[in-house]
Structures are given as structure tokens and as C-alpha cells.
Amino acid sequence: MMFSPQDGWQAFAAPAKLNLFLHIVGRRADGYHLLQSVFQLIDLADTLYLRVRADGDVVHHNPLPDVPASQDLIVRAARLLQQETGCTAGVDLGIEKRIPMGGGLGGGSSDAATVLLALNRLWNLQLSREKLMQIGLQLGADVPFFIYGQNAFVEGIGEIMTPLTTPDGFFLVLHPQVHVPTPAIFKADDLVRDTLPITAQAIDYQQTRNDLEAVACRLFPALLPARAALAQHLPTRMTGSGACFFAFSASQNEIARVISRLPNGATVFEAKSLSRHPLYEYAV
Ligand SMILES: C[C@@](CO)(OP(=O)(O)O)[C@H](O)COP(=O)(O)OP(=O)(O)OC[C@H]1O[C@@H](n2ccc(N)nc2=O)[C@H](O)[C@@H]1O
Ligand SMILES: Nc1ncnc2c1ncn2[C@@H]1O[C@H](COP(=O)(O)OP(=O)(O)O)[C@@H](O)[C@H]1O
């Protein structure tokens, strides 16, 4: 093990999210889209390794192949937290990546949120959840949700939360190995931007959808066979701006059965719903 406790490393989970639905209800003056979505935490997770340094440096020990250390959200999260608090301690960082990148699963945002939550404790900053969420929003629209730490009806660009109980169960997540760039989806002329707002108290999931899905499938038709393979077995939806699709079942056996029937070579994950972020208690 590269980051062992004997060497002073501590491990922290960074869970993925699914957007059970995602409606675009408007646009801000700066062009960012206003959304309404239910964000669901799942137990598919990256592992972050942290070790406090006295010299103030932030050092990434195993940068991802396609993300330079200085751009990695975990490094940016640690540096931003130093700036915001004047903290003079530093940190060694390592990562074991399991959440597919650019999949609409919020992996990078969750990694950043876990670093903020863990350092709040390791650097003894005593920051409130609200303050950590404000800092997190500077790193990405999905970061505040992970710091909020419970399943939620999310509005604005991702900063307004209403807690929500969602059914416990199992998700099949299918990664179609197609790269879907988020900006292209939000720029598309045919994106529906005027879905009628709903309220957290009256969600009928049958009446919801992911407004980004039709655009993603039109721009990247290679998504369609993956979607169809899963939709043959269970109701299927895209998460975030793609590329992953997911299906839900209360029965783990049913998810296992569907996985066994998907075409060979498909990249699939089975995940369980989480009701709380594993680091929920780390904000004050
Ligand atoms: C749509 C969601 C739902 O979770 O997708 P995923 O990233 O998880 O797939 C997020 O809100 C994605 O937010 P975020 O992760 O910050 O998006 P980025 O990749 O930084 O955004 C790329 C570009 O998309 C556009 N964009 C993004 C978010 C938003 N609410 N409105 C936008 O118009 C902006 O032009 C932005 O410059
Ligand atoms: N720690 C990180 N993990 C994943 N992606 C990161 C990380 N830091 C920066 N990124 C960048 O953020 C992009 C989006 O990542 P990710 O959060 O995995 O997807 P999504 O926003 O679709 O849920 C990646 O393509 C990568 O360039």
C-alpha cells in the first residue's frame, strides 16, 4: 500500500452523486444555467489520503495522468482553504480514483469537498458547514452539495439545498466510454431552458427528466447504444451532463441480474444509496 497509516497517512472517502433528475429552469445574467435537481449520494467512492505538513506546502504525490497537480481540484481545494483562513500548515495528498472522470458523477467535486472537510478537522479550522460550502462553490457548482452531506433538492447553480429523503436501494451505473464536454451541452441551441419550476414537497419522479440528456444524445449519438442496453431492463436516465446512465432497484439481486445481461465489455458499477456523507461530522 502506497499511502500506509504507518507513514502517517489518513484515508477519507469521497462518494459519487447521481442526479435523479435535472431540470433547467432558467439562466443567470452571467450565462450560467439555473437548475432544479435531486442529488443522491452513492457508495461508489474515491479514497483521498492526507498527511499534515508543518512547512505550509501542498504536495500531490500521485497526480492523475491527464490532470496536472496544480489543476487538480484536491490541490486547489487545499490552497484555497489556506488562502481563506490564513492557515500556515500544509498537506501531503494522495488519491485512489474509482469514480470515472467526466461521467456526471461529480468525482472531482467530491474529491475537493472531502479535502475541505478533512482539512477542517486536521488543520483544526472549526469552519461551519455554511462557510465551507461558500468556499467550495468557488471550486465548482457541485462542491457545496458534497459538503452539505445529505441527499437534497438542489437549486440555483448548485448552491441552494433542501434536505430530502430518497428511497434506499441499489443503482446500476453504466459508463459508455464517451466523452461529453459539459460546456457543449449548455451551449446547445436546442437545450430546453424553461422547464416549469417544481417544489421539493411535490416531486413526482415519473414527471421528471434530465433536460441535458436529449442534447447529449443528439450531439454524441455513441451514447445511444449504451442507453438502449440498460433501458431494455430498467428505467434509465443520464446523470449530470453525462456520460453515465443509471437505473435504480430496491433489489440488489435485480441489479446483479441486469449486470449479468449487459453486453460484454460494458463498464458498469453497482452502488448503494447513501443517506449521509461519510465525513458529515467534519463540518462544525
Ligand atoms: C450539470 C452538473 C450537475 O451536477 O453536471 P456534472 O458536472 O455533474 O456533469 C453541474 O451543475 C455542472 O457544474 P460544473 O461542474 O461546475 O460545470 P463546469 O464543468 O465547471 O461547467 C462548464 C460550463 O458549463 C456551463 N454551465 C455549467 C453549470 C451551469 N449551471 N450552467 C452552465 O451554463 C458554463 O458555461 C460552464 O463554464
Ligand atoms: N480530482 C479530480 N478528479 C477528477 N477530475 C478532476 C479532478 N481535479 C480536476 N479534475 C477535472 O475535472 C473534470 C471533470 O471531472 P469530474 O468531476 O470527474 O466529472 P463530472 O463533472 O462530469 O462529474 C475532469 O475531466 C478533470 O479535468
Automatic annotation (TrEMBL):
Name the residues that bind ATP.
100-110
Ranges for the GHMP kinase N-terminal domain? 73-150
* Entry annotation: catalytic residues: 17, 142
- What's a Pfam family this protein contains? GHMP_kinases_N
Q: Which reaction does it catalyse?
A: 4-CDP-2-C-methyl-D-erythritol + ATP = 4-CDP-2-C-methyl-D-erythritol 2-phosphate + ADP + H(+)
The protein's matches in InterPro entries, at most eight in alphabetical order, are given as: GHMP_kinase_C_dom, GHMP_kinase_C_sf, GHMP_kinase_N_dom, IspE, Ribosomal_Su5_D2-typ_SF, Ribsml_uS5_D2-typ_fold_subgr
Q: Which GO terms describe its biological process?
A: isopentenyl diphosphate biosynthetic process, methylerythritol 4-phosphate pathway; terpenoid biosynthetic process
* Pathway listed: Isoprenoid biosynthesis; isopentenyl diphosphate biosynthesis via DXP pathway; isopentenyl diphosphate from 1-deoxy-D-xylulose 5-phosphate: step 3/6
Keyword Kinase listed? The answer is yes
Where do the GHMP kinase C-terminal domain residues begin and end? 209-263
Q: What is its EC number?
A: 2.7.1.148
**Which UniProt keywords are given for this protein, alphabetically ordered?**
ATP-binding, Isoprene biosynthesis, Kinase, Nucleotide-binding, Transferase
Q: Name one GO molecular function term.
A: ATP binding
The free-text function statement in the UniProt record for this protein reads: Catalyzes the phosphorylation of the position 2 hydroxy group of 4-diphosphocytidyl-2C-methyl-D-erythritol.
Q: Which family does it belong to?
A: Belongs to the GHMP kinase family. IspE subfamily.
The name this protein carries in UniProt is: 4-diphosphocytidyl-2-C-methyl-D-erythritol kinase
- The organism named in the record is Andreprevotia lacus DSM 23236
